[in-house]
Amino acid sequence: MSTANESRQAKVIGELRVFIKKVLSDPTVAVKCVEVARKHRGKPDAHQLIADEISASTTVRIPENWSEADKMFLEILDDVLDDEEALY
What we know:
The protein is about 75% helix and about 0% strand.
C-alpha cells in the first residue's frame, strides 16, 4: 500500500474513532442521527440535509467539505434505513 493510501486510511480511521467515541458517550446521538436520516430520506440533496441537521442538533460535526469518513457515515445511515425498511 502506498504512503498516501496509508495516510488517507489512517485519517478515515481516526475520524471514525472520534465518531464512535461520541456515540458511546451519548447513546442519544445514534438515535438522533437515524431520526434525521429518516426525516430527509428520498429528498433531493438528502445527504446534505442530513449532514446539516446532524451538525446543528448533535455533537457530531459534518463539515461542508465531506471527508471519506463523512461520506461513509452517510452511506451507513442509508444502509440502516434500508435494513429497517426490509423488516416491514
